[in-house]
Amino acid sequence: MPSFDVVSEVEMNEVRNAVENANRELETRFDFRGVEANFELKDEKVKLSADAEFQLQQMRDILRGALIKRGIDTKVLDPGSIVRSGKRHIQEMGFKQGIETALAKTLVKQIKDSKIKVQASIQGEQLRITGKKRDDLQQVMALLRGSEQEQPLQFNNFRD
User: Fold this and answer.
1) Which of 29, 46, 94, 154 is deepest in the core (most CB within 10 A)?
2) Which CATH class is domain 3-8+98-159?
3) What is the pTM of this model?
4) Please, which residues have CB within 8 angstroms of residue 159's CB and are 6 or more apart in sequence?
5) Quick check: 119 and 129 in contact, CB under 8 A?
6) One fold for both 3-8+98-159 and 12-95?
């Protein structure tokens, strides 16, 4: 029976490359000359540190641009609160990995409401879609791509 998995993952190698590109861009920007500001990737989180809060806003825009250039959807960003310690402003940006239960339930409901002859089951942080025909599975993929979700979805582990 054909099946595939619906997942939401972020390639951390691409994130690392995007952070390095953002640091390079930060060094060349005129408005950041003489300012101690940097991006740091640690434990699957990007730490932004700068002297002022408005610089953090500019750094978030630089990071988003670098992520887009590397093919990563910016919906995966999970911004933390801004912490001020002395003269420094620090913010950590996490990444949403995996499909949460609430989103998985809405996806399953959406698939069942479409009346496509497939079974959808929640398996941890992913969905397994199973059907008798490959065409039905492709219809489900098109349905999920067309719907607007709060985080990007990828399809993998396609089996015939």
Assistant:
1) 46
2) alpha beta
3) 0.83
4) 2, 3, 4
5) yes
6) yes
